[in-house]
Amino acid sequence: MYKKITAKLFAFFEIINPLFYGVLVSFFQWKNHLKKRPKILIFTDSRGFEVTKFWNRKNPFSSYIGRLIIDYDCVVRVCPEKFTSLLDFLDFYQSLSHMSFDCVVLHCGIVDFAPRPESSFDQMLFSKQHYSVKYPIFNLINKTNRVSKVKYQNEFTYSFLNEAALKNVILPELIEIPNLIYVGINPVLSDWDGNYWRKRPENINEQLVLDAMLQKELTNSISLSNLTDSEIKIYTSDNVHYTKQGFEYIYKQLKPLLPKD
């Protein structure tokens, strides 16, 4: 019964919070616009909010983003899709072509880079088909052109993006975005799961290869790949999503890269 109630609360706040906090973000955006503070675009996957408490579902004020909202004129998108991808970011950014930003914070990519079971890969691939004309990656990531040797839950694993798609399609788009700051990915520990309810794929840290490709090519990035085992246990709740201490760490790395008033 407890699990059912908790699940319903998570689902409820997943709907309510974007509406409530959207109004709050708009208030600070208006206030900081009048003060002529720098304009920042923030786009994240589920790592942009604290995930363990139902009242924090998609709540930007539960992470470092809240401090940016208070201090800057911010446009914010926190985990807008079930599979929030770099494709979603690029599409959203291009929809804002009438706006200019002093800084763009991109905390996204793990959904694209992490190996996932074949059925999950198929779901994500289907959900992104509407991008097939705009972003010609789908021949590159097609399973028929790839080899998988690692199974998870009795299924072969595939990352959504591979090196060819990232190098030839995604990276050229990202490089063209002025003042982009990419927030990277930390390693996943094999001997610690935190509050995650099962083991992750044994090849999960292949995600760090694509993460390193982005960091190498982008001018500004925050690397989390060198976090120690003890830091990962402090800064994350489950090897992926961040605790209060983790968000504070990211903010401290981000602060020197942000525009000055």
Explain the overall architecture.
The radius of gyration is 18 Å and the shape is globular. It has a five-stranded parallel sheet with strand order 2-1-3-7-8. A three-stranded antiparallel sheet has the order 4-6-5. Helix 2 links the parallel strand 1 (39-44) and strand 2 (73-78). It has one domain: Rossmann fold, CATH 3.40.50. By secondary structure, it is an alpha/beta fold. It has helices at residues 2-34, 65-71, 86-95, 110-113, 118-127, 138-141, 163-175, 207-217, 229-235, 244-254, and strands spanning 39-44, 73-78, 103-107, 116-117, 151-152, 155-158, 180-183, 220-222. Helix 7 packs parallel to helix 8. The mean pLDDT is 96.
Helix count? 10
Give the spatial strand order of the biggest sheet. 2-1-3-7-8
CATH topology: Rossmann fold
Order of helices and strands: HEHEHEHEHHEEHEHEHH
Gyration radius over CA: 18 Å
The percent range for strand residues is 5-15%
In total, the number of domains comes to: 1
Shape: globular
Based on secondary structure, the structural category is: alpha/beta
Number of strands: 8
Tell me the span between the first and last alpha carbons.
51 Å
CATH class wording: Alpha Beta
Low-confidence stretches: none
Instruction: Output mean pLDDT.
Output: 96
